[in-house]
Give the backbone structure.
Amino acid sequence: MSDVHTSKFLSYVLRHRPDSIGIALDENGWVDVEVLLAAAERHGKRLSRQLLERVVAENDKKRFAFSEDGRRIRASQGHSVSVDLALEPIEPPELLYHGTVERFLESIREKGLVRGSRHHVHLSPDEATARKVGSRRGKPVILVVEAGRMHQAGYQFFRSANGVWLTESVPAEFLRGLEGQ
């Protein structure tokens, strides 16, 4: 199985559908590596510990992490299944960024950024990362999130293990870059 295919498979089972291969995540999103490998094999996916280690180490977005003892694995964020990543609230930088595409701007103008089926809205620490995220769905539009102002207004922010900033929602009043697009 290629690294890209493995990453997509892990995203699917560790973020959205662990039941699709008969595994269960613990309350913090972890699953035993040996359980994952055996379940994947039963479902026709040939994975190895070495392949998992490479994908975790080399994934440019650091989507996955091993536990400190290396016996468990989980997705860093982006779950649609219920998990508690045990993240502590943290003060964000003044500005964060969100990459999207033009077809979503009208809804964002009305509702702001909403989490949809995920647990949080995902924000990038820099414009380049947001541009990369937005370009997955077409020509990217970069929105500036006034995170410092949001934090002062009582909104909580979290930072996942791979540096993605998370918050429950971003009201339109805290977004710049919506005008004239």
The chain has a mean pLDDT of 90. Helices lie at 3-16, 33-42, 49-58, 105-111, 127-134, 147-152. The chain has two domains: 3-75, 96-176.
